[in-house]
Amino acid sequence: MRVVDFLVVGGGIAGLRAAVGLAEAGSVLVVTKESLAESNTAYAQGGIAVAMGGEEDVALHLADTLAAGDGLVNAEVAAVLVEEGPRRVGELLRWGTGFDRHPAGDVAEGGAARAGELMRTMEGAHSLPRILHANGDATGREIVASLLRHLRGLKNVELMEWATTVDLIVRADDNGVGRVLGATLLDAAGGLIEVRARAVLLASGGAGQVYSETTNPAVTTGDGIAMAYRAGAELMDMEFYQFHPTAFAMDGAPRFLMSEALRGEGAWLVNESGERFMARYHAGMELAPRDVVARAIGREAMEGAVYLDMREAGKGLDIKARFPEVSAFLSGYGLELERDRIPVRPAAHYMMGGVRTDVHGRTSLAGLYAAGEAACTGVHGANRLASNSLLEGLVFGARAAQAMVEEQETGNREQGTGNKAEGGAIEAVNVEAWIAELRRLMWREAGLLRDEVGLRRAKAGLTALRAKGPGLLGLTPRAQARLSAMLATSILNPGLLRLTRRTLEARNLLGVAEAMVQAALGRQESRGAHYRVDFPERDAVARHSVVRRGELRFIA
Ligand SMILES: Cc1cc2nc3c(=O)[nH]c(=O)nc-3n(C[C@H](O)[C@H](O)[C@H](O)COP(=O)(O)OP(=O)(O)OC[C@H]3O[C@@H](n4cnc5c(N)ncnc54)[C@H](O)[C@@H]3O)c2cc1C
Hints:
Helix content is 35%, strand content 18%. The protein has helices spanning 13-22, 40-43, 55-68, 75-94, 139-152, 223-230, 260-264, 290-301, 319-322, 324-331, 388-407, 431-445, 452-468, 477-488, 494-522, and strands spanning 2-9, 28-31, 48-49, 131-132, 157-160, 164-172, 178-186, 192-202, 235-236, 241-248, 268-271, 306-309, 341-351, 354-356, 368-370, 375-376, 417-418, 544-548, 551-555. The strands form four sheets. Strands 1, 2, 5, 6, 7, 8, 15 and 17 form an eight-stranded mixed sheet that branches. Helix 12 (431-445) runs parallel beside helix 15 and helix 13 runs antiparallel to helix 15 (494-522). The longest helix has 29 residues, at 494-522. Residues 418-428 and 487-499 have low confidence and may be disordered. Bound molecules: flavin-adenine dinucleotide. Flavin-adenine dinucleotide (FAD) binds at residues 9-15, 31-34, 38-41, 43-48, 139-140, 163-165, 203-205, 215-216, 219-220, 223-224, 257, 350, 372-374, 387-390, 393.
């Protein structure tokens, strides 16, 4: 058993920023499922939205955030995001994050010199350019690198890679309300470790892998959300998944993101016949809110291919310098932004829902906090404003750390039990095929366009999958011991190790998918990213969905 003051699950922007704050107050263990290079943060391209220009700028950022969220944004939380954002980004700058700056000799339209100033770009639904970026389109990687550099200079922080959290350790009181005391980990050597902590932060990211079409890397299987749910925490707004309009669409190729910043720099969307079709859907054209653009592409794609066309906008722009990652990826497929139209289609991108928290990252379980994409503060409402999520991780990672430090005195290290899980044999079914079936089902029936019939099919399909893989879906303490013993003798067999982690991920994907479908069925309206073909109108009153232990309710 390991004992630390603070356990942080996840090494993306939220977890790393939180660790900085926690390190001042005690020992911190940060665990990540793969290497620190694998997180949604590391893949973030476009940049981080932040209002660095004073009060008016902040007010506009708030207005844009509220508008994008389609009536469901928690205004108090959004105000915290935009007001604290500049300070947190200022810290990043002090810690050496190399956001791109205008080069020597660069002048603004009015003739003022801009050399050395931070570059700001535009994205959809922003009223002005406020997105900072680094190394062109490699913003996330630069932020992770600078946070890690800073963290490595601090005492008290241990980074443990290739460690998968299995479940939370909880102690339930007489009313069945749990206090979280730590978590079980499956470490790189395949051993199970019990970690006890005064407070646990879930910064484990989203769940893009629940869909067969996603821009998210393999680690995004909603583990933290599913673990919290199993432990009895409330989840909020699980039906809201943002579909990015422009993922690379070539058979056999990954759904690599064609950053919104491309459209921010003027790229067009055209259909098979070359028509710039967004004119028929929204006055904002290519920079309309993401859900509008994604559905428009979805509709056009029924008639033929849809392309991102940068050829006109790219004239006079050093595209390879501005979009090095995208350019390098495309060159692998013989394509160039300057020369070719790029085939695109929507893919699951960002989870607005997650573990319900207050503005300090507190969940409904004592001792458990959440921040970043795993959390749902209500800051994004029904639709996230582009590039607000890196900022969210930064601001609310820092706030959660502060609350964990302040409240740690009330924590304790009592005996708890592993969270109860059903199941017996471990390798009852082919886990990869089982996961693939779940992901296809979710894409088909609970994706961009939804209706009652499809969602009921999704629900039935998930029930069938649960029945098909009972051994796969939970590990009793006995099964855990068996798993541990198996792995101890097969460290040299990476296939087995992977299968085992996949078993845990399969269980988590199912838990997340079930909560998503339940909430999507319950929300009989269309709002933001949740589009019900059978209920195309928006309700007069905006309500959040909350799921806990299989019960769904709606709250103001
Ligand atoms: C391709 C792409 C481009 C994007 N571009 C932008 C952008 O330009 N601007 C913007 O604001 N947002 C962007 N986003 C969204 C943004 O990157 C994420 O919302 C944000 O980085 C999430 O940060 P996080 O710290 O919450 O989680 P992540 O960065 O996803 O980190 C999650 C961490 O949790 C760990 N983890 C997960 N499960 C477990 C487990 N069971 N045990 C241990 N560790 C676990 C992972 O290993 C990882 O370290 C983009 C997303 C993608 C996929």
